[in-house]
Every structure is written in structure tokens, then in C-alpha cells.
Recover the amino acids of this structure.
């Protein structure tokens, strides 16, 4: 993920188009939209992401990955640059199971960048943003910041 | 034990440690990487959830309660490197309706965790 030369600012569409391999690709996570401090990524339903075969429901782990990535991209957008950071913590509330067969949309927003820490929040939904499947809050440690 | 498709995707195996507690093992694979050289936080999070689930299932024994996750909080302490990761869970309280569970993940040294999680589950009997 570091070897690309990116234009000034940060363009998640290019970032995801240039991506090769890794866990996000393995899960089939892709780009949908972004703004100044937020990004929407897609997690299309796949049989190999199911956690409960009896009900055909997605495991929660892929949603953790989706929201980690969407909020991470939110930090790059808010900072306007692809700078190194690491997830410090992530909390997910599982509001309801995702509907079997539906694509999950993860929207991550960075609402505050302090000197060493970025604060993020977001939701995951499967079609209706007003009826989310999960809510997320988290922080990232900024690794380029002076100690 | 039949693994879920997602557990298979992560490459997880479920065993017990020398005290008989469930241990989850995740061998390194390129499909688990996030930033170069480090495991993806989501893969570690997914693994911690499975370790917590295994600990709760073991604690429930013959009680076939349905387990529904309410929430998870994951703390990332160290980067996960390109090697095998282990995770184990502890049930801190097993109630009638709620179970509180913690899980930690480590690589070389169990006393130097790479990540830890706290989960609350709803139990339906």
C-alpha cells in the first residue's frame, strides 16, 4: 500500500483501484464514494464470509474489517494525505444481523484530528442508512506525529 | 467442530491449551495483511471474536443457548507481524441473559498481546 505515488491530497478511488492483495481484497471490499472527511466502502455478500451457515448470515469479522478500512480512509481524507497510522481501538455495536444476500455499505467518518490521535465514527447498513446493522466508534494513532 | 466459512477463510484452527481452555490458531497468510508487513486489524478483530465465542461455548457446556453478539471493543497494542497468531478467551461473567467475555491475541509471547477484545453477548435459551 505504500509503493504508489498518489496525487496531492488523497483519492480513495485511485487507492482502491491500485490495491493488490491483502485482507480487504480477499473479503471483496471495494470503494463506493467519499467526501472531505468520510468514505463509503462496499462489502458484497459472499458465501465464504458467512458466520452462521444455518441462517446464511455474514460473520461480524468482515464488518470489523470493513469499518476499520472505511474509518481509516476517513482519516486520510480529513488529513488530506496518505500518512501512516495504526488502529488504536475500535468498538462496534451490532444493532441487527445483516440480511443474507445483501451488500453491506460501511461509511466511516473522521470527525477530529488531534496532534497524535484521530477520532472516527461510522455506520454499516445493508440498503437503508436509517436502519443500520452496526455502529462504530474508534481512534487511530498517527504514526508520523512527533512524540 | 464444523467451522464457519469465515473461520475457514481466516485459516483458523480450534484447539485447547494445557489447561483445557480453547485456543484459536491463525497461521500467517498474505490474505490477512493490511499495511505491508502487518496483519489487518479486521482479521485480528475477527479472530478475537472467534476466540471469545469459543470460550463462551466451552463455558456453556451442554447449555445450547443461542449466542448473539451485542458489541465488541478491540484494543490494538502491537502490530501483528507475518507469523502465526494465537487467541484465547475468558468468560468474566455468565449470566442468565448476558455473558461478558474478554479475548487476547498474541504471537511469540502470551504475555505480550498484540490485541485484546471485550465482548458482550445476549443469551437466548
Amino acid at each position: 500500500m505504500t509503493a504508489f505515488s498518489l496525487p496531492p491530497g488523497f483519492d480513495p478511488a485511485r487507492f482502491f483501484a491500485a490495491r493488490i492483495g491483502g485482507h480487504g481484497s480477499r473479503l471483496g471490499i471495494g470503494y463506493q464514494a467519499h467526501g472531505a472527511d468520510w468514505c463509503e466502502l462496499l462489502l458484497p455478500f459472499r458465501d465464504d464470509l458467512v458466520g452462521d451457515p444455518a441462517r446464511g448470515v455474514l460473520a461480524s469479522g468482515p464488518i470489523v474489517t470493513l469499518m476499520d478500512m472505511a474509518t481509516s480512509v476517513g482519516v486520510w481524507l480529513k488529513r488530506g494525505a496518505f500518512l501512516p497510522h495504526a488502529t488504536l481501538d475500535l468498538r462496534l455495536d451490532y444493532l441487527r444481523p445483516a440480511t443474507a444476500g445483501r451488500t453491506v455499505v460501511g461509511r466511516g467518518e473522521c470527525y477530529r484530528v488531534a496532534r497524535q490521535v484521530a477520532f472516527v465514527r461510522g455506520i454499516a447498513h445493508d440498503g437503508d442508512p436509517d436502519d443500520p446493522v452496526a455502529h462504530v466508534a474508534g481512534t487511530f494513532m498517527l504514526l508520523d506525529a512527533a512524540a | 467442530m464444523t467451522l464457519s466459512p469465515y473461520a475457514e477463510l481466516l485459516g483458523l484452527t480450534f484447539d485447547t491449551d494445557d489447561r483445557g481452555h480453547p485456543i484459536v490458531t491463525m497461521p500467517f497468510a498474505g490474505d490477512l495483511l493490511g499495511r505491508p508487513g502487518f496483519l489487518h486489524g479486521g482479521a485480528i478483530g475477527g479472530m478475537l471474536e472467534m476466540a471469545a465465542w469459543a470460550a463462551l461455548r466451552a463455558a456453556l457446556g451442554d447449555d445450547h443457548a443461542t449466542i448473539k453478539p451485542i458489541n465488541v471493543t478491540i484494543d490494538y497494542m502491537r502490530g501483528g507481524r507475518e507469523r502465526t497468531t494465537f487467541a484465547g478467551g475468558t468468560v468474566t461473567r455468565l449470566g442468565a441473559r448476558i455473558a461478558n467475555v474478554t479475548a487476547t491475541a498474541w504471537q511469540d509471547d502470551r504475555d505480550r498481546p498484540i490485541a485484546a477484545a471485550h465482548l458482550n453477548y445476549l443469551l437466548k435459551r
The mean pLDDT of chain B is 96.
